[in-house]
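Trying the structure run again after the queue cleared.
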Amino acid sequence: MYGEYNLRCVQGETLQRELSLVSEADDEPIPLTGVTAAMQVRDDVTNTLLISSTTENGHLEINGSAGTLKINIPAEVTAQLAIGGFYELRLIYPGGIVKPLLKGEFLLEDSIFS
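Done. Tokens:
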């Protein structure tokens, strides 16, 4: 089941967020050792892929023992965006099990820098 969270990004910024995954039962970090992640941002009209972020390309980073996931999309990537849309973030567990984590609007704000 997805959580919902809208991401706000200023065009040309390094988009950084850190998520802590904790158990509802005991408020302890959820272990993410061996887990990878993938996130896509798509245009909400044409479904065109705007950003593809993964642990492999360095836009996402997981600290398995701490149960944290960092989003770190470089400024060079967000500078190329002309529109926002929507995003989806998934965790991929060993053995290929895919679990949706978050989804929501990807809100792009114009920058005055060129």
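The chain has a mean pLDDT of 95. Worth checking whether this holds up in the mutant runs.
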